[in-house]
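Handoff note, outgoing to incoming analyst
You'll be picking up this chain. Sequence as last confirmed:
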Amino acid sequence: MASKVIYFKIGDRLEQAEFQSDFPPDDVKDIFRAAAEAGPLDILKLYNTRGNIVNISPKLPENTPETRYRLEVVATYCDANELGFDISTVESRVENLERKMKVDSGETPEVVYELRQKVENVRSKLEGVEHLSWLGLFKEFSAGSNQHLPFFKRRLKDVQDDTVWETFKKVSHLQLTDDVREYLKEPVFDNWQWEDAEMLLLLQQMFIDLDFIKKFNIEMPVLQSFLFEVYKHYNNVPFHNFKHCFCVSQMMYGITWIADLCNLVGAAEVLVMIVSSICHDLDHPGYNNAYQVNARTELALRYNDISPLENHHCSIAFQILGKPHCNIFRNMSPEEFKYVREGMITCILATDMSKHNAILNSFKQIVPEFDYKNKDHISQFMMICIKVADISNEARPMDVSEPWIDCLLQEFFNQSDVEKLEGLPVAPFMDRDKVTKSSSQVGFIRFVLLPLFEALGDLVPALEEPVIEPVRKGLQYYTEMGKALEEEKRKREAEKMKPVQNGDLNKQNGPDSRPPLETDTDPVNNNGKTKAGKSNSLNDKLTAPSSASSSNKTKADGLKPAVKAK
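Most recent structure output, in case you need it:
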């Protein structure tokens, strides 16, 4: 493959780099990191001649010496020892200085206020750049493997990915127990109990139990490589990460069994929907289409503002499938592959929520006269199915679904924070100053989620009890939560308006008084949840249960079903 030459400058120093288009992304980043004499965790930004940030990747467009990129080190990783001081210590010293000045002179000089503001700005800069890394500030961070954090950080890819791959290879030959296989088919499945390597094993089992291995002549080593390559292309963002990919795929798998889709629409169509679910958010940056368009990002420019993220996810999917060792479709005929590719493109692009109403209204019109032999009807049915799976968290038990809301709101808040900094439009439902958990869920479930689910239920009544009814209960739960919060707010307001008698009036209106603090009564711990009885040892999990165990008992006890070796 031909090499490309990239011209850039660092300050006044002119540099150029040469690499091939198929170089691993990390190798390309290391070239620029070395040129900038930057450390492994320093944050870099690359600008084009228009001052826009561009991604440092093998696909970086070639340029000329007259159109050099500009490379900057915008933040240097350091801990307290490397800094030579602890920022908390500095804050404490400023507070002591402020206190002493006020005691000695009776007032605080303006210069002390300025010093305190500067220290606060330093702390804000040190803590606030992490979620901007995808913009080209390609610092990578580590995240706990069995925690879902309120604020996700980029993983150290080489170490974590290698660990997941080695673990997956060790367990990939194991045979899941019947309890696990049945549990995997149910909408109540709890993703929080499973590690990444184990979820890869479960995805592999879906292909086995749907008989895709035989029907489409998929080689097991190729399937494993495909699944791992997909895993590597999901970023550690709060919501649109590999766990979300798994949840959407698992719900699609559950719907397949509940509605008997293989017989209803065909095995090839189910294959399209399962693989589309696995790939539907590949390389999601954690910032939605509105941001891509408003910020005029590379993706928006590449796809002309038309579903930039969904087009990107689809493109990445077929780049992975283009690698021979990952191409699970390589034994298909050209006609079969063409059909599968067209179906995947249709399904993945359908997950763009800006198309939601058009897709749903079109589907509603054909439901009364739906024909399973009509290709257009089947195509619309597949789009509705993947859309249901994509936003299906509310169909799961509350202790599974509610932590996902925290993850989604965190991703929304990260984006709105950036939009405010950049002077871009901010959607009210993403603004941390305007939205609450209950308000966000009530509107979404009532006007988006429930109409979609009920439309599918009109055609497939088998989904009513296991999938649709839990959504109605979720709407009732968040409606009641909202009413409770409103009632509490009214009580606080009424308490503040009560007349205060005698000397208490002056005390209430005194200079040191303040209104009561409003606290969030959210019952969910922001750090996620840990089920009782969850084993920390993979070997413990890979032990077959006693014959007396059952999937119902397992779920009731909050324990994950076990796995047994062949």
